[in-house]
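re the bet — no i am not wrong, look at it urself. input seq straight from the record:
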Amino acid sequence: MLFMPIKGLSMIKRILGAILLAGLMSATTAFAQARANQGTITVSDVSGTVRYRVGESEPQSLRKGQTLPAGARVTTGADAHVILAFADGQLVALGAHSRLLVRDFTYLPNDPGKSKVLINLTDGSLFVIMGAIGQRDPSLVQIQVGLKNLAQAPARAPGNDAGVVVLGIATLIQATQGRVSLLVAASNQSFPLAAGARALVQADGSVRTGLSSQVDAQAGQSADGKIMLGRMEALQRYQPAGRPIAFLISTPPFEDLLGELDAPGDVDAPVTAAAATAATSASGGASCGASCN
């Protein structure tokens, strides 16, 4: 038959309209979910005196269940800690006498390649447990330790290993899961760390890598080293059951003033590095191939 009854056309139009409406509703829901997850950071655990600040606002006490936006600065006091749960499942635990700046966090579940995490540990201690972003593409998570006046951020070569950039501050790093590619700005050098290895970075850029026992022996010879060892050991008690830590970082403090939430005004640009591989063998390592400009 060449012609369809008008009644049949009407039914087809209704069916097509319903399909189109369902598609639009699905797309709207997906878009809303993506926006809801973008930049959401929740305080999953907090103990002791912990404060935060966004922009030029006054410092405020941080409470469990509270949400934070990207750009928040968090400071912990003595005998304090906080665990931040990122929308993709990533966990960041901050130890006592620490200062952290979440420079950027974007989570787009429907377009994960455009997701991003950029964290700056000014001083103190933290551990990172990877979420969906780091598990899918570790290079989307970036860690910076310390502050330094930079005319240009060091270039980061592509790679799937954990990445930590150290800027002019003594730092102790433990690779626990996956691999770490350590970039030391002061010496313009990079060092691969296999899971189970540690690195001790001195403020002058000199680096000692090896097994924990070897690095700990050298770190224990200085007061700052003993502080870093103590901080790293204390931080591990907050590891959630069943969630492996990717890596830990600790530094000696610049100061003990809890109210000092502002980073010193000498940061010209954030420094980036590849992030942690979610699950790799405990053996072997890989160089990051990155260099400072």
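see?? The first strand starts at residue 41 and ends at 47. told u. also Residues 18-37, 149-153, 256-293 have pLDDT under 50 and may be disordered. so pay up
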